[in-house]
Structures are given as C-alpha cells and as structure tokens.
Amino acid sequence: MRTIALSITSLTVALSLFSINAHAETRIPASTAYLDPDANGAKVAKEGISGWTNPRITVSWFGEIKIPGKVDASVSLRLPKDKETKLHLIAGEQSREVRAKGTGESQIVKF
Fold first, then answer.
1. Which residues contact 23 (CB under 8 A, 6 or more apart)?
2. pLDDT recorded at residue 55
3. CB under 8 Å to 45, separation ≥6 — which residues?
4. Nearest to 76 by CA among 21, 43, 28
5. What Å distances lie between residue 8 and 22, 33, 49, 104, CA to CA?
6. Is 30 helix (H, G, I), strand (E, B) or coil?
7. Sequential pLDDT tens for the chain (111 residues)
8. 81, 84, 79, 41: which is closest to 60 by C-alpha?
9. What is each CA distance from 33 to 26, 85, 92, in whole angstroms?
10. What is the pLDDT of residue 101?
11. Can you give the residue ranges of every domain in the chain?
12. 29 with 84: CB under 8 angstroms?
C-alpha cells in the first residue's frame, strides 16, 4: 500500500483534477483538496481552485493505492500567461517535481 500526496507550492489560479493511471484512470477532483497552513488561503470549489495568491499556502491531495504497479500521474491546470509554478508529487518514498508555465489556457502537466 502506498500513500500519494500532491502538493503545489506556488501560485496557481485554477486546478481541475489530478489523474492516477494504474490499470484504469482515477480522477481526483480539485474540490477534494486540502489547504495548509490556512484553510481559507484560496477558494476550493467543484470548478477548481481560485484566489490562491499566497505562495506559502500548499494545496494537497491524499490517497491510497492498494495494488502495486506503475502509476502515471498528471494534473490539469490553468495558469495566467507566462506565470510559472512548481508541482511536487510524493508516492511512497519516491517524489517527482515538474514546472509549468502558464499559457492562459487549460493544460495537462505530466509528472
């Protein structure tokens, strides 16, 4: 059993989902996110996460994968044009980090 946590530690305007692909695709909605250290540091809604202006706020999701196997993870987000953010994924003892640059449109970022 592995625990997966996705933490985003920089400015993001809208985050819509996080996908885990083992044998089938699982989508984790943005509305299930946790904000830390201030639960009111952004607006978490069905449509995504908005109003996130404090880079000290971390947006996280947690879950369990009970069957060992390969996991492909990606996140769908929309950043303002030319804004950059860093995304960090932790799965068990492994971690991945990617950077995304905003286009003003929705984009998929793969880990």
1. 67, 69
2. 81
3. 30, 31
4. 28
5. 22, 11, 11, 18
6. helix
7. 444 444 444 333 333 333 444 456 778 888 888 999 999 999 998 888 888 888 888 888 887 777 777 777 888 888 889 988 888 887 777 888 899 998 989 898 988
8. 41
9. 15, 17, 19
10. 92
11. 2-110
12. no
pTM of the model: 0.67
pLDDT, residue 111, reads 85
What is the rounded distance in angstroms from the CA atom of residue 94 to the CA atom of residue 38?
27
Residue with structure tokens 């060992």?
68
User: How large is the greatest C-alpha to C-alpha distance in the chain, in angstroms?
Assistant: 39
Q: How far is CA 87 from the centre of its chain?
A: 7
CA–CA separation, 1 and 85 (whole Å): 30
